[in-house]
Design a protein that fits this description.
Order of helices and strands of chain B: HEEHEHEHEHEEH
Number of helices of chain B: 6
Strand content of chain A: over 45%
Radius of gyration of chain A: 25 Å
Number of strands of chain B: 7
CATH topology of chain B: Glutaredoxin
Structural class of chain B: alpha/beta
Order of helices and strands of chain A: HEEEEEEEEEEEEEEEEEEEEEEEEEEEEE
Oligomer: heterodimer
Strand content of chain B: 15-25%
Shape of chain A: globular
Distance between the termini of chain B: 42 Å
Helix content of chain B: 25-40%
CATH architecture of chain B: 3-Layer(aba) Sandwich
Largest sheet of chain B: 7 strands, mixed
Radius of gyration of chain B: 19 Å
Largest interface: A-B, 100 and 71 residues
Structural class of chain A: mainly beta
Number of strands of chain A: 29
CATH superfamily of chain B: Glutaredoxin
CATH class of chain B: Alpha Beta
Number of helices of chain A: 1
Largest sheet of chain A: 24 strands, antiparallel, barrel
Helix content of chain A: under 10%
Chain lengths: 517, 188
């Protein structure tokens, strides 16, 4: 305990020392520090449990000519979720990066992230707030010459968010070449091998490629991946197609997905994720549905079944000139009705999902901002395991809006209101949910708001049907952002970039302080 | 005991970060970067800094406050673009939604470069954890100001900071010819 406290105290002191030395050299140091702290009660299995976490992440980059040395010192006392339930102080990230000023070559040794194409074969990402990190530790090299871009990587995954099932060595290459005007062709090869003694992970070999075109009025993207898994006599494939057109103020995009990834079902005990949340570690393909819509609508997300899903989405964007813009989106998906199927169905045994969403962003007058939306979604999940039948069948209708308006000089008001009508056909229940927030914004640096949320159906896991909280934000001295929430927060499934996490109901205080330097 | 350690750690880290932050945000050298725009062309920061100040606006198609801020930033760009000012709207849309960026910006007819940063490497270089995140860079490559998030009215502060980077021209009088004033330092 004493050692830990000493280490924590040493962190800022050593940084101050390094910073002081660097002032007189050609080394520049930049970074940020984020503190996340909470104290309250979390509701699990019908009981309230003490929930307290303290996380500090200090990102520090040292620049010297064309080199960059990056570090992240992390202190978890303990962390908010998942595997890091113990207290620890660690040098979580470290890398040395070189970038040729002409952009011809570059490399990074240490921790790295990268995205290939649209992520069907590889997309290494980090989402601290979701507790997700698929970054690798090893070597990443990049080269650009005469319209050809090449990347090669070799690294070890420490994907602790999935327990130890994804401890693996990852090697791969990616090539992209510009062909005719606006046309490019890409190809990738990836080998993922289990670390000796890793649990139940299979060796996989991925081959992928894409063809893309960006013209004045049209964009096309077609990408395909084939995955071979040791010991699995099955075809694992993924296909994504996208067609976009722009006609004056109207933008149209039509997207298609056909995913049949290999999905490891072995999640270690104690992981912050449950088996029902389908996560693929190194791939992050487009989800082909709207994910972030509105507060209430977004609390009933569709979890993408990466191992078995076909879907389409149509999205229209329309400019209303100085008045604002409008977006309309339609999406539909289902599991594969049969091996050869390439379009989603609405048959209930194929677990269909469909969604429509319309949103307006408007500036009707000076300093007034108005957002309005309406949404509809329907999800039926049909179980084919054990006693077959409908697991879930819900229809949801949302209507909401937000307005910001001046009150007096330097003080603005904000009102957010949303209603969601849920028709739970499986449970034969119909109920209304509502969310109302009102607040003030002072000099664009200080916010204070009060939120009230209710549901017509009390969830036994929540133990309540009304939630009240106060949220605030202060932007101090042009470099510190302080956010706080006091009160009750509703639980539920939160999805970001197709990666979902179960959040448990919380009652207490949460503070986040971000400082830039 | 444990609560005490946590509290002590919290205090020391807050103090450390605040002290460091107070000492070195403004005037730091802006990290160079090259990103592809939505048409697939490579864009380098230094090319635009040679012409004048650059405002980096990190945003995403799914980010409501970002979309709220962009029309205001576009207005600032229109006001100062003839004097060499540039605005980079840097999308951090990842593979989930990067296909939506081009139709969105084309239909809304953005007149400034829209760049793609799907792995958020440039956002991290500019100390960002989230969007919107806005950075103003002077032509000498020094960072002038950083804004975390967006709140209504913030565009006035941004415009004031941009304006401070341009010479002020005085009206001609009989006894004093027109001359350019020195660049006024941004003291925001």
């Amino acid at each position: 305990m004493r050692l830990r406290a000493a280490l924590i105290l040493l962190i800022p002191l050593s940084l101050l020392l390094v910073f002081g030395v660097s002032r007189s050299e050609r080394i520049t140091i930049q970074g940020n520090n984020e503190v996340r702290w909470a104290d309250g009660l979390e509701r699990l299995s019908g009981r309230d449990w003490k929930k307290r976490y303290f996380e500090n992440r200090l990102n520090l980059d040292l620049y010297y000519q064309d080199f960059r040395l990056g570090t992240r010192l992390t202190s978890l006392q303990p962390s908010e979720f998942g595997e890091y339930s113990e207290s620890k102080v660690l040098l979580e990230k470290k890398f040395l990066e070189y970038s040729d000023p002409r952009g011809i070559i570059g490399f990074r040794a240490g921790d790295f992230y990268t995205v290939w194409g649209r992520g069907l074969s590889l997309a290494l990402v980090e989402d601290i707030y979701q507790g997700f990190d698929s970054g690798l530790e090893g070597f990443l090299g990049k080269a650009n010459y005469s319209g050809v871009h090449a990347e090669a990587l070799s690294g070890r995954s420490r994907a602790g968010f999935l327990g130890n099932v994804r401890e693996a060595r990852v090697n791969g290459v990616h090539l992209e070449a510009g062909l005719l005007s606006g046309v490019k062709l890409g190809g990738q090869a990836l080998l993922v091998e289990p670390i000796p003694d890793a649990v139940s992970y299979k060796e996989t070999r991925d081959w992928g490629g894409y063809l893309a075109y960006d013209g004045s009025y049209l964009s096309v993207w077609a990408e395909h991946l084939r995955e071979y898994v040791t010991g699995k006599d099955d075809n694992f494939e993924a296909t994504y197609l996208s067609l976009s057109g722009f006609f004056g103020p109207l933008g149209i995009s039509l997207d298609y997905k056909n995913y049949n990834y290999y999905l490891s079902s072995s999640i270690s005990q104690g992981s912050g994720y449950s088996q029902t949340v389908n996560i693929i570690a190194y791939h992050s393909p487009p989800i082909v549905q709207r994910e972030i819509t509105s507060n209430l609508f977004g609390k009933h997300p569709h979890v993408v079944r990466y191992d078995d899903e076909i879907g389409v989405q149509l999205e229209l964007t329309y400019s209303l000139d100085a008045l604002g813009s409008a977006i309309f989106a339609l999406s539909q998906s289902s599991v594969h009705p049969n091996e050869d199927a390439w379009l989603p169905t609405l048959e209930e045994v194929d677990s269909p999902y469909r969604e429509a969403f319309l949103e307006f962003d408007l500036y009707p007058a000076s300093a007034i901002y108005l957002v309005g939306w309406a949404g509809y979604s329907e999800e039926l999940i049909y179980s084919t395991i054990g006693a077959q039948g409908r697991d879930t069948w819900q229809r949801r209708n949302a209507l909401g809006g937000k307005v910001e308006f001046p009150l007096i000089p330097e003080l603005m008001g904000m009102i957010y209101a949303e209603g969601l009508y849920v028709d739970d056909i499986k449970r034969e229940e119909k109920y209304l949910e509502a969310l109302f927030t009102t607040g003030v914004i002072f000099r664009s640096n200080y916010n204070l708001s009060l939120t009230l949320e209710t549901t017509g159906q009390e969830d036994p896991t929540e133990g309540r049907d009304t939630w009240i909280n106060i949220q605030g934000r202060a932007f101090l001295a042009d470099r510190h952002e302080l956010l706080f929430t006091v009160g009750q927060e509703r639980g539920g499934l939160i999805c970001t970039s197709g990666k979902c996490r179960q959040v448990f109901p919380f009652n207490g205080v949460k503070i986040t302080l971000t400082s830039l330097f | 005991m444990k609560a005490g350690i946590i509290f002590l750690g919290f205090l020391s880290l807050c103090f450390g970060s605040v002290v460091i932050a107070e000492s070195g945000l403004e005037g730091a050298k802006a990290p160079e970067f090259a990103l592809k725009n939505v048409d697939g062309e490579q864009v380098r920061l230094s090319q635009y800094l040679a012409k004048g100040p650059v405002l980096l606006d990190f945003w995403a198609t799914w980010c409501a406050p970002c979309k709220q801020a962009i029309p205001h930033l576009a207005e600032i760009y229109d006001n100062y673009k003839d004097q060499g000012f540039s605005l980079f709207a840097i999308s951090i849309d990842n593979t989930r939604s990067m296909g939506k960026v081009r139709p969105y910006v084309k239909s809304l007819n953005f007149q400034f470069p829209v760049l793609l940063d799907p792995d958020q490497e440039v956002l991290k270089k500019y100390r960002g954890n989230n969007v919107p995140h806005t950075v103003l860079i002077a032509p000498d490559s020094t960072i002038q100001r950083v804004w975390i998030g967006y709140q209504p009215g913030e565009e006035k502060e941004i415009e004031k900071a941009v304006k401070a980077l341009f010479p002020i021209k005085e009206k001609p009088t009989l006894d004093k010819p027109v001359e350019e004033m020195p660049v006024e330092e941004n003291k925001e």
